[in-house]
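Give me the 3D structure for NUDIX hydrolase.
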Amino acid sequence: MEGMTKADVDKLDKGLAVRSGRALRPRDAATLILLDRRGKDVLVLMGRRHARHAFMPGKFVFPGGRTDPADSRISVGAPLRDEEEKKLVAGPGRASAARARAIALSAIRETYEEAGLLIGRRGAFSTAKRDWQGFAEHGVIPSLDVLRFIARAITPPNRVRRFDTRFFSAWRHDVAVELPGGGPTNELEELVWLPLADARKADIPDITGMILEELEGRLADDPLLRPGGAVPFFRLVRNRFVREVL
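Predicted structure for NUDIX hydrolase (246 residues):
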């Protein structure tokens, strides 16, 4: 995937967003790849975006969305593992520890909002932030130590929306509460657990397929997804889409 051509870049973004005429600064975003081991298979949670959405309509995606800087002030049951934080603050646009914390927490928050899954530990939790009230209501303290930083990708310039997305993973047993009705935002029409091989064949964005391929390779080398693994980073450099490693 190193040194992709302009045609490859266009393919990655086809159907996701149209060109805008001006370069936008990418906004921090986070995505959570929730995994569940079933016998010899590893399943991944994906949801279908509503057809009415301007961004990736009808595509199967992982839960995720934009980072709220205020997420950095949310109390947690356990912080990021040192190995994961070092990866998050590395690379272009070096992030502060607070920014890295906010990005990681936004992956947990978005997974609750879109999928109704609360990741953390059972216990008393309180906050004044409305977006986190579900954790207080269900007695879950969000915890960051279960997250593994899997990949990073920046949307190329001249797109309607640009994100600097960090992809995290966690296991289903890290979910403290599963709400039967899904998340409160109803952004995803359908939530399904798919074997990784089947997920790659679904109607997914091309970058999602690349991330799944990277994840399969990492799982083959390290089935437990220990902290500090290599993190592929996809971005446009001098009009070439490249894969680097953090």
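The chain has six helices and twelve strands. Let me know if you want a second pass.
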